[in-house]
């Protein structure tokens, strides 16, 4: 049909936009509680910003083209490279650690499916300039507090965390070479969605020996801190590689958030730039893709030509979160209800209604009136249809008395109220 939005793109009808605004408001509120400042960047960026460091998967999904000035450009598929560039440009002047958040709209040419569209809004919270695992715990706590703010408990959502340094040490001990590691990470990332045989085939193509392939699956199956510590303790060069993971986990326990957190080495993240702790938040029923994903990317700022600063962050999408809210029937009160609908009894009452409407709006009261004069019944019907709490009726008699009749449209009760009272806090 002509006039439809492109596949994977959304029209936001008012009730849908109300949900989006509710999600954004909750994100902003939690970010504020954590002392994060909001920033933004351009939606269109040089193509090479992503081809350099984001990894193949995202590069294949780019909306890219040559602009009229013959520049290769792309709609932003993620925010992290933009953030890295922005921080790099002002790194000297900014007080570290930088705690910034943003809610960009992102574009990826994905195969459209439930929870996966070609545009989405993504909360990004990042900390730059802090290597301590307390920073990792801080961001994970923010993720959990966001879902708690939406009313979810540990029975409904779980944060799964891992560490690329741990994965690296274990995989190398299982005989994988540095060159084979990207293939191993890709296989681990898909280990819950793709059959083992298919993944083994890909690993074989990457040159992995049978023993190494078994090793990849053994690593992906590790769960819980004790088992992870035992595994790293048993490999050469394993000493200390799980310290950051242990420390971040202990911090989350101290915050009282342990019930939300699992150590799970099948978490590796699809993006190429992660270097340390990585995490994803899932619904426990696992019917949806990850609500959120993030981790530490200590090398990215330097790699993009900027300063050498440790960095970490996460992205949480509005689409999957919206699905989760719908699935658990988490309703919310849509704001912006009309306080009053003004009714003019006769044509002569229209001008006084306009005056009163304006004076009320100046005082912050939400009011509307019929944009063409009609009989009272029609105006009252419109008032109800618009969801107004009250009708304020102005006729010749009320004008004479400097008053109006206020009808409570739910209770059906009426009272005569002086204009002075209407204008001084009656609607508060
Ligand atoms: P990501 O895992 O690609 O990470 O995306 C994060 C979240 O955004 C996902 O968990 C999902 O909820 C949502 N999302 C991603 N793609 C789509 C899509 N096509 N449709 C709907 N939702 C989607 C990143 O983008 C990293 N840059 C996050 C980050 C920030 N890491 C550090 N700082």
Notes on the structure:
Helix 1 packs antiparallel against helix 5 and helix 5 crosses helix 11. 38% of the residues lie in helices and 19% in strands. The protein is built from 17 helices and 17 strands. The protein folds into three domains: 150 residues, Bira Bifunctional Protein, Domain 2 (BirA Bifunctional Protein, domain 2, 2-Layer Sandwich), CATH 3.30.930.10; 141 residues, Bira Bifunctional Protein, Domain 2 (BirA Bifunctional Protein, domain 2), CATH 3.30.930.10; 83 residues, 3-Layer(aba) Sandwich (Rossmann fold). With 428 residues, it is α+β, with helices and mostly antiparallel strands. It binds histidyl-adenosine monophosphate.
DSSP helix count? 17
For the residues shown, what is the average pLDDT?
94
What is the second-level CATH architecture of the largest domain? Answer: 2-Layer Sandwich
Which compounds are bound in this model? Answer: histidyl-adenosine monophosphate
From the spread of the alpha carbons, the general shape counts as elongated
Strand content: 15-25%
Cα radius of gyration in angstroms? 28 Å
Which stretches are low in confidence, meaning pLDDT under 50 for 5 or more residues running?
A: none
Q: The CATH topology of the largest domain is what? A: BirA Bifunctional Protein, domain 2
Number of separate structural domains? 3
Assembly classification? single chain
The first-level CATH class of the largest domain is given as Alpha Beta
Assign the structural class, choosing from mainly alpha, mainly beta, alpha/beta, alpha+beta, or little secondary structure.
alpha+beta
Q: How many β-strand stretches?
A: 17
Largest sheet: 9 strands, mixed
Distance between the termini: 47 Å
CATH superfamily (homologous) name of the largest domain = Bira Bifunctional Protein, Domain 2
Helix content: 25-40%
